[in-house]
């Protein structure tokens, strides 16, 4: 296990990048502590896989350094970094038994057979596959194949980091929750440094202690799942995380206050920073339907089971509210109340209000 440091990391797939737009990864500075559970979260094309390949040694960065426990490994090939990887599609040997699949990484390194048996037994018990050890891997279900692939990554006790690249993509939806829970449980038991790459917010937020959110080759926020939901540092984070995502609404600043469609909106605190584009951000969970507040008209109501999502129009602007009360009818005239301590201003996408209190 190792502390991982990324220092001034940049990467371009072009031989002579002329500017920021030519870089798949813009400058990245990041520290991951030894033994932590981390997630790289973002949409396709944001740079997650590029960053993962740089850490693993499959790709050499255009600029910057990768350090494991303060040792520069930027120039080292993958086999000298002691990294285990689990990919989208299970990497196992179908002709081998489950036991031999789990034992392979250890036997390949000359580990004594008594140690191999003990380690495989421990991992098999954690994965709940002990009764499958004698089974030929070709006959396993996709979720059990991915379990074995995870086990191959965890069976060694000398790895610096275990990296998971979209490991649940091909797993049936009803089995994903079970495997996510199992992976979290495994981390708590083995305490290896783990990095989980995904575009799925549920996977990232349920697995990781710290989530790194990426957009267009940049890190826009690092925080706990609670941090990312409660106080998005960027409108992208607010929109990307949450279902539905944060309302991002056009705002006009005048007379020291923020206005939406000509109506005053009290903010959580004083406005800070500089920027051209000003927007109000508030999560639908903190928008209430009441007798006073911003005048709006109901456009659509979606029943999602335990609550309803009401989409209303304030002028030409759509605002979503989550309510557990009986929702108003489509076309109804209503008032929306924004919870002030959750109502923030963003300048050019970045948070620009002081925290309430």
From TrEMBL:
| Gene3D superfamilies attached to this UniProt entry | 2.40.50.100, Nucleic acid-binding proteins (2.40.50.140), P-loop containing nucleotide triphosphate hydrolases (3.40.50.300)
Concerning SMART domains, the annotation shows:
AAA
Keyword set for this entry? ATP-binding, Cell membrane, Membrane, Nucleotide-binding, Transport
The cellular component terms of Gene Ontology attached to this UniProt record, alphabetical and capped at eight, are: ATP-binding cassette (ABC) transporter complex, substrate-binding subunit-containing
Which InterPro entries does this entry report, sorted A to Z?
AAA+_ATPase, ABC_transporter-like_ATP-bd, ABC_transpr_FbpC, ABC_transpr_MalK/UgpC-like, Mo/tungstate-bd_C_term_dom, NA-bd_OB-fold, P-loop_NTPase, Transp-assoc_OB_typ2
Q: Record's Pfam families?
A: ABC_tran, TOBE_2
Q: Does the keyword Transport apply?
A: yes
- A single MF term (Gene Ontology): ATP hydrolysis activity
Q: In its keyword annotation, does this UniProt entry include Phosphoprotein?
A: no
Q: Where is the ABC transporter domain?
A: 9-241
Family of this protein: Belongs to the ABC transporter superfamily.
Protein name, UniProt field: ABC transporter ATP-binding protein
Q: What is this organism's lineage?
A: Bacteria, Pseudomonadati, Pseudomonadota, Alphaproteobacteria, Rhodobacterales
């Amino acid at each position: 296990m190792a502390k991982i440091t990324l220092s001034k990391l940049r990467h371009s797939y072009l031989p002579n990048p002329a500017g920021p737009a030519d870089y798949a990864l813009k400058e990245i500075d990041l520290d991951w502590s030894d033994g932590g559970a981390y997630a790289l979260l973002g949409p396709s094309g944001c740079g997650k896989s590029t960053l993962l390949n740089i850490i693993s040694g499959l790709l050499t960065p255009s600029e910057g350094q990768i350090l494991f426990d303060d040792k520069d490994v930027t120039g080292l090939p993958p086999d000298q970094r002691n990294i285990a990887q689990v990919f989208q599609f299970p990497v196992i040997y179908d002709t081998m038994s489950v036991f031999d699949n789990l034992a392979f990484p250890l036997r390949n390194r000359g580990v004594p057979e008594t140690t191999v048996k003990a380690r495989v037994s421990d991992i098999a018990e954690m994965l709940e596959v002990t009764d499958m050890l004698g089974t030929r891997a070709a006959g396993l279900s996709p979720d059990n194949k991915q379990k074995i692939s995870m086990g191959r990554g965890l069976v060694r006790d000398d790895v610096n980091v275990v990296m998971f690249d979209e490991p649940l993509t091909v797993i049936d939806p009803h089995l994903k929750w079970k495997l996510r829970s199992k992976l979290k449980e495994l981390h708590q038991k083995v305490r290896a440094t783990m990095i989980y790459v995904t575009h799925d917010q549920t996977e990232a937020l349920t697995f990781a202690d710290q989530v790194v959110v990426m957009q267009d080759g940049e890190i826009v926020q690092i925080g706990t799942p609670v941090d990312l939901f409660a106080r998005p540092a960027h409108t992208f984070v607010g929109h990307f995380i949450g279902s539905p995502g944060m309302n991002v609404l056009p705002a006009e600043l005048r007379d020291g206050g923020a206005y939406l469609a000509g109506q005053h909106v009290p903010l959580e605190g004083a406005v800070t920073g500089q920027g051209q584009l000003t927007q109000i951000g508030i999560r639908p969970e903190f928008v209430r339907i009441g007798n006073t507040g911003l005048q709006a008209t109901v456009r659509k109501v979606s029943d999602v089971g335990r609550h309803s999502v009401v989409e209303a129009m304030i002028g030409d602007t759509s605002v979503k509210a989550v309510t557990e009360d009986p929702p108003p009818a489509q076309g109804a005239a209503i008032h929306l109340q924004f919870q002030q301590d959750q109502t923030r201003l963003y300048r050019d996408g970045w948070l620009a209000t002081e925290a309430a209190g």
